[in-house]
């Protein structure tokens, strides 16, 4: 008999500021990326790609918003894949 685990997705509470809405897609993507990263939903690499920023630019954005950088083995594995793919 095969047992199947059902995994429920927790609702997300993401808020977009009126300023970001007025500034357009680029600002909205950055704000979403920051929130998803801060809530440990996205890795650094995923959030950086959503924001369409370089590693350095996204690190600066995190600092500007006083969001601490978390880094684990999954982040390292993704960084290695990105480096190996030449992206």
What does this structure look like?
This protein is mostly helical and 87 residues long. Helix 2 packs antiparallel against helix 3. It has one domain. The protein is 59% helix and 0% strand. It contains five helices and no strands. The chain has helices at 18-23, 25-38, 44-51, 55-64, 73-85. The longest helix has 14 residues, at 25-38.
Largest sheet: none
- Percent of residues in beta strands: under 5%
Radius of gyration, in angstroms, nearest whole number: 15 Å
Low-confidence stretches: none
Total number of distinct structural domains: 1
Record field, number of beta strands: 0
SSE string: HHHHH
Which shape, going by the Cα principal axes? globular
Fraction of residues in H or I helices:
55-70%
**Measured distance between first and last alpha carbons:** 44 Å
Class from secondary-structure proportions: mainly alpha
Q: How many helical elements?
A: 5
Mean pLDDT across residues: 84
Itemize the secondary structure elements and their pairings:
Blueprint: H1 18-23, H2 25-38, H3 44-51, H4 55-64, H5 73-85
Helix pairs in contact: 2-3
Can you summarize this structure?
The protein has 87 residues and is mainly α. It is built from five helices and no strands. It starts with 17 loop residues before the first helix and ends with a helix.
Name a few traits of the molecule.
single chain, mainly alpha
